[in-house]
């Protein structure tokens, strides 16, 4: 059987191939990622509390600062992990190289030659080759986010479901898919092997690699979905803390 | 006329043509250290018509059907060739094919696998057992890519995009070849002690063809003019299933693999018409039979809307079809807006292969000109009156290697470079440049179109004496007009200029086809004559051999070599040898 | 159909050129190559365009249609109804004439890649699950559209530092072959320059064979290079165990 990892030809769109300006896509990427980074900086540097009752913002979890009893900028201890995980992510690399570096701005665009381009062979961009380490750290953070998601269902007066609980749960799910569809993880669990059946039967490693490969096809989708969910979760809790909105309890 | 210069390159062996057999020959020839070998091709490396082979490469491993062996492969090949094949070629072929396929595997080709981890084999038309080693439906691509990288690593020089216009023969020996680089039109002389021709067939002589642009029979025509013998020219294979609609894709191949994987043929009344023509083998009958059956159905008014038959694989389910026939799926989706996993599609016969070609020695692939060798589609003898699907790819490997070996051995005992006649080269350069100077001449593309029309109408799938005669007259008339082909533009990559020589080559070969077809007054394999509809035993004993003296084509008969007793015995059981030895039924 | 298509085809050679306008009668299912043939057969017999099979198997007819790298034989004219169709040669390679470019650099690179080094003689004992992974790369038809669109080669004159996407999948094809015993990681890290690629995926987008070049070949190869040259823990472990250049993590076992 063919591997499901290959893309399949799509039915030909009827009608005409509309001409599209190449700079539209990178510009949109630049705007979204840019606003997100600015928002994150504002959140990390101008706030010191991400906890509203039983809701904890993903920016502030785990609360490393609290463990040591000193938290000048609580989010700073943790927020760099997901940031670097995303920065070194093979999917986001595509997006920001296109969006911010214009390397390339679009496919097959006649760009001015920049002979000093060195790809990812030199520092600091060579750090992207250590994506696996940021993945290890991101998994640790993810465990805490699951704890937070569960905790979000236990209010002062017992079990319940609020909009915040759902957002945190969805966020944890999206982040799980995003984390475990990672290219570096795919390599770790089996991609590094050349032969899955040489020991006789297909190994557990093959099955895992195959599963991860299927998820990996949608890595970009999970990347955007989890970015949105993290953002939404934090914004929701921030607005609660600011008193702008009130949490809606479903039951 | 200004005095022209040319570049001279010396090689012990040059191979013209970079398809499967050319590259295989080159790899074999280069095995001797110190021997200088060059491959000359008119396209880019790896683009040859071999990539169009889809279904697989036939070799009797018996990975799925254990009773298979070379005897059965030999039996199938001879029977499908209607016994005018050279038995010795078929024997060598059937014996050596498995080894050649394994060679490919160790050079990096990755075939589909069986559950036991061996090479997967699929059933194909008129093969007794499941025999075609394949990679989805792009086996030819795999073969040529593997050979391409192997030859790039064998110390061979490759000259791409060179048009060869003349084969040089001096004192009865091959002396080299002359032509020009397409890139800038500069002339080049390859001096060589041996030349291997691997230039493929001439399927472009028909309007509806599965053949690529290159299949214009250049090598065959070059050798024919130089004095080499051609044989079985009347035998042109029509593949039963080519695409039909839309017009731009008419003729593009639909792999026999579709039927091998279980595809069903139906006429406009929904009937599986192969029942009438070959109830035993049905869709997997030999190509000549299936092609003729579709043709007859259309003639009887039971054709599909655009003049073909319906082929249906949708009952196999989308997953299976996409895994086994990914190329077909995509081909129909992008070119015909049709999903073959959901609906049947129209197919009709398309010109596919030329069984005829240069007459060669089975052991060394040597032609009648000393120092000239030929392998692959350009050579003749293995396939007889009809080629089995999947046999062409193993043909390339088996006889490509033998031609390389033959050339290598010839060179080790042959004299040094033969001298080259300067005056001959001067005349050739004048001839090649002449189309630029003719005024108000005829457009070579239009000559080609007319040629295709004549061949389609007069020497196609259905032939008869008077129609062939009429075709011959038209063709000779066209040949006359073609003397005045002219072109404009510069010598830098000028396709119109290249077309002039393609057309000249095809004109010569077409004449050979029609003359030979007129002589064979019976129906045999791919050669179907309505005025002589039966296969007659006395014609089984002869091949038609043609030679060209610069003025006209002369045709003579040669007896078909008789099989020795041990081989002849294989045909006395009434069924395939593999089935005889087998006591029980076929394993599932 | 009595409609017609308007094409603007780049005509010229090394010394320069310009777009020339042609009009071609429309036909059902027509592809760009059909239109070019019509021009060639009737108006401009010297219009240079490479093509062989006209069925998307050989990869000869790569060019840029309205700025997009495409196979001319697979690009339908009716996708561009109402537009002028501009056809230009691949921009990354030196021009020869009209739509024909000099792609010889690719064949030089091909020579640099070591062949398969089988760990056991054929016939191989290999399962389909292992074949699957490399067979995807075997679908490549060498149209070089990925090389054309790759910005490292196209915009940054990276020909000396990077082999390009086509040859990344060629290396992957051997490197991930279950029966291969050669080690191509040093080649990847140095001469082949896998890290010149910044995974922007244009090669995957233009591939007419739908090979997932970036996800299934380049990124896994980058990870192998990271194992060897960037991962501090792995480097340390290798130093400690005394194995300096052993292929990491890949089991080159000979099957029984």
List keywords for this structure.
heterotrimer, A: 251 residues, mainly alpha, 4 strands, globular, disordered N terminus, B: 588 residues, Flavocytochrome C3, Chain A, domain 1, five-stranded mixed beta sheet, 36% helix
Under the CATH scheme, which architecture of the domain at 7-235 and 355-413 in chain B would be assigned? Answer: 3-Layer(bba) Sandwich
Extended strand count of chain B: 19
Instruction: Give the averaged pLDDT of chain A, no decimals.
Output: 85
Proportion of residues in β-strands of chain B: 15-25%
Helix content class of chain A: 40-55%
Question: What ranges of chain A have pLDDT less than 50 throughout 5 or more consecutive residues?
Answer: 1-11
CATH superfamily of the domain at 7-235 and 355-413 in chain B: FAD/NAD(P)-binding domain
Main beta-sheet annotation of chain B: 7 strands, mixed
Structural class of chain A: mainly alpha
Q: Please state the CA-atom Rg of chain B, rounded to the nearest Å.
A: 23 Å
Look up the CATH topology of the domain at 7-235 and 355-413 in chain B.
FAD/NAD(P)-binding domain
Would you identify the regions of chain B where 5 or more consecutive residues have pLDDT less than 50?
A: 583-588
* Count of helix runs of chain A: 9
Structural Rg of chain A: 21 Å
Q: What does the model show?
A:
The complex is a heterotrimer of chains A (251), B (588) and C (256). Chain A has helices at residues 24-46, 64-67, 76-87, 90-99, 131-151, 163-180, 183-191, 204-216, 219-242; strands spanning 51-52, 55-56, 154-155, 158-159. Chain A is mainly alpha-helical and 251 residues long. In chain A, the strands form two sheets. Chain A has a two-stranded antiparallel sheet. Chain A has a two-stranded antiparallel ribbon with strand order 3-4. In chain A, helix 3 packs across helix 5, helix 6 (163-180) runs antiparallel to helix 9 (219-242) and helix 7 runs antiparallel to helix 8 (204-216). Chain A is globular. Chain B is α/β, with parallel strands linked by helices. Among the domains of chain B are: 7-235 and 355-413, FAD/NAD(P)-binding domain (3-Layer(bba) Sandwich), CATH 3.50.50.60; 237-352, Succinate dehydrogenase/fumarate reductase flavoprotein, catalytic domain (Flavocytochrome C3, Chain A, domain 1). In chain B, the strands form four sheets. In chain B, strands 1, 2, 6, 7, 8, 9 and 16 form a seven-stranded mixed sheet that branches. In chain B, strands 17-15-10-18-19 form a five-stranded mixed sheet. Residues 583-588 of chain B have low confidence and may be disordered. Chain C has 256 residues and is α+β, with helices and mostly antiparallel strands. Chain C is 34% helix and 14% strand. Chain C contains ten helices and seven strands. Chain C has helices spanning 32-42, 104-111, 128-138, 145-149, 151-154, 165-175, 185-189, 202-206, 213-229, 232-241, and strands at residues 4-13, 16-25, 62-65, 68-71, 85-88, 95-97, 100-101. The chains are: A mainly alpha (251), B alpha/beta (588), C alpha+beta (256).
């Amino acid at each position: 059987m063919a591997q499901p990892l290959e893309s399949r030809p799509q039915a030909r769109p009827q009608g005409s191939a509309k001409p599209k300006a190449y700079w539209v896509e990178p510009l949109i990427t630049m705007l979204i990622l840019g606003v997100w980074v600015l928002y994150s900086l504002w959140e990390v540097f101008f706030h010191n509390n991400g906890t509203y009752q039983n809701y904890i913002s993903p920016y502030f979890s785990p609360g490393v600062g609290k463990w040591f009893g000193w938290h000048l900028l609580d989010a700073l201890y943790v927020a760099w992990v997901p940031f670097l995980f995303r920065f070194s992510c093979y999917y986001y690399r595509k997006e920001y190289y296109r969006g911010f570096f214009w390397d390339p701005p679009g496919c097959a665009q006649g760009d001015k030659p920049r002979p000093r381009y060195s790809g990812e062979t030199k520092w600091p961009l060579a750090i992207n080759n250590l994506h696996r380490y940021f993945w290890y750290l991101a998994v640790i953070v993810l465990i805490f986010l699951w704890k937070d998601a569960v905790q979000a269902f236990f209010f002062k007066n017992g079990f319940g479901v609020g909009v915040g609980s759902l957002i945190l749960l969805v966020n944890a799910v999206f982040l799980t898919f995003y984390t475990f569809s990672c290219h570096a993880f795919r390599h770790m669990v089996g991609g590094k092997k050349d032969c899955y059946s040489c020991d006789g039967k297909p190994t557990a490693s093959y099955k895992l690699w195959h599963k991860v490969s299927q998820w990996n096809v949608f890595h970009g989708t999970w990347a955007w979905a989890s970015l949105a969910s993290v953002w939404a979760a934090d914004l929701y809790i921030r607005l609660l803390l600011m008193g702008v909105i009130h949490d809606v309890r479903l039951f | 006329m200004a005095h022209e210069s040319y570049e001279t390159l010396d090689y012990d062996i040059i191979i013209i043509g970079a398809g499967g057999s050319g590259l295989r020959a080159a790899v074999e020839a280069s095995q001797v250290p110190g021997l200088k070998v060059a491959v000359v091709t008119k396209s880019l490396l790896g683009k040859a018509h071999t990539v169009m082979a889809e279904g697989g490469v036939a070799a009797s491993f018996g990975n799925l059907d254990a009773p298979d062996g070379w005897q059965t492969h030999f039996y199938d090949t001879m029977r499908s060739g209607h016994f005018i094949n050279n038995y010795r070629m078929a024997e060598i072929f059937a014996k050596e094919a498995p080894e050649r396929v394994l060679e490919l595997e160790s050079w990096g080709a990755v075939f589909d696998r069986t559950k036991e981890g061996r090479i997967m084999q699929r059933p194909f038309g008129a093969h007794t057992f499941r025999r075609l080693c394949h990679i989805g439906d792009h086996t030819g691509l795999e073969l040529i890519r593997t050979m391409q990288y192997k030859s790039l690593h064998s110390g061979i020089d490759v000259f791409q995009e060179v048009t060869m216009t003349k084969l040089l023969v001096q004192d009865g020996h091959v002396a080299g070849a002359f032509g020009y680089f397409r890139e800038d039109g500069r002339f080049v002389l390859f001096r060589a002690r041996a030349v291997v021709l691997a230039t493929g067939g001439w399927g472009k002589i028909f309007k509806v063809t599965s053949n690529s642009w290159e299949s214009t029979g250049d090598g065959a025509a070059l050798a024919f003019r130089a004095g080499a013998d051609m044989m079985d020219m009347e035998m042109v294979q029509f593949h039963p299933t080519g695409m039909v609609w839309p017009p731009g894709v008419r003729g593009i191949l639909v792999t026999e693999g579709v039927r091998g994987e279980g595809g069903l043929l139906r006429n406009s009344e929904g009937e599986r018409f192969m029942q009438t023509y070959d109830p035993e083998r049905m869709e997997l009958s030999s190509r000549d039979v299936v092609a003729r059956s579709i043709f007859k159905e259309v003639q009887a008014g039971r054709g599909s809307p655009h003049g073909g038959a319906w082929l249906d694989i949708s009952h196999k389910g989308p997953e299976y079809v996409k895994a086994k026939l990914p190329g077909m799926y995509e081909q129909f989706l992008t070119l015909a807006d049709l999903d073959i996993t959901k609906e049947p599609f129209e197919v009709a016969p398309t010109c596919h292969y030329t069984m005829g070609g240069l007459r060669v020695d089975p052991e060394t692939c040597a032609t009648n000109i000393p120092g000239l060798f030929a392998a692959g589609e350009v050579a003749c003898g293995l396939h007889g009156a009809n080629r089995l699907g999947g046999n062409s790819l193993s043909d390339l490997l088996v006889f490509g290697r033998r031609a390389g070996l033959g050339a290598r051995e010839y060179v080790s005992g042959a004299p040094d470079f033969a001298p080259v006649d300067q005056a001959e080269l001067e005349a050739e350069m004048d001839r090649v440049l002449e189309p630029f100077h003719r005024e108000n001449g005829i457009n070579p593309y239009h000559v080609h179109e007319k040629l295709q029309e004549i061949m389609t109408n007069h020497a196609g799938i259905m032939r008869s004496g008077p129609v062939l005669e009429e075709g011959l007259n038209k063709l000779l008339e066209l040949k006359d007009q073609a003397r005045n082909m002219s072109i404009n533009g510069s010598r830098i990559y000028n396709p119109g200029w290249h077309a002039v020589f393609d057309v000249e080559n095809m004109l010569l070969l077409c004449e050979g086809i029609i003359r030979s077809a007129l002589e064979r007054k019976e129906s045999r394999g791919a050669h179907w004559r309505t005025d002589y509809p039966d296969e007659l035993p006395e014609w089984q004993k002869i091949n038609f051999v043609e030679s060209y003296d610069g003025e006209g084509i002369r045709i003579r008969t040669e007896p078909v070599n008789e099989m020795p007793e041990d081989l002849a015995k294989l045909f006395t059981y009434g069924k395939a040898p593999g089935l005889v030895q087998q006591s029980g039924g076929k394993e599932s | 159909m009595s409609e017609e298509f308007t094409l603007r085809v780049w005509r010229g050679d090394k010394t320069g050129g310009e777009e020339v306008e042609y009009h071609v009668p429309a036909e059902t299912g027509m592809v760009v190559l059909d239109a070019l043939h019509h021009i060639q057969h009737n108006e401009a017999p010297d219009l240079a365009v490479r093509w062989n099979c006209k069925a998307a198997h050989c990869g000869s007819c790569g060019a840029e249609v309205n700025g997009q790298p495409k196979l001319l034989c697979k690009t339908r004219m009716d996708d561009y109804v109402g537009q002028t169709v501009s056809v230009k040669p691949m921009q990354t390679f030196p021009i020869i004439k009209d739509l024909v470019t000099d792609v010889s650099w690719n064949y030089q690179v091909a020579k640099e890649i070591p062949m398969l080094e089988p760990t056991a003689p054929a016939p191989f004992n290999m399962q389909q699950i292992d074949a699957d992974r490399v067979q995807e790369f075997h679908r490549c038809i060498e149209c070089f559209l990925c090389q054309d669109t790759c910005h490292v080669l196209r915009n940054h004159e990276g020909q000396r530092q990077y082999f390009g996407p086509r040859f990344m999948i060629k290396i992957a094809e051997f490197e991930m072959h279950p029966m291969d015993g050669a080690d191509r990681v040093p080649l990847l890290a140095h001469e082949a320059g896998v890290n010149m690629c910044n995974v922007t995926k244009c090669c995957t987008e233009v591939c007419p064979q739908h090979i997932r070049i970036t996800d299934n070949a380049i990124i896994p190869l980058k990870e192998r290079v990271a194992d060897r040259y960037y991962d501090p823990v792995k480097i340390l472990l290798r130093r400690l165990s005394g194995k300096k250049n052993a292929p990491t993590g890949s089991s080159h076992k000979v099957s029984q």
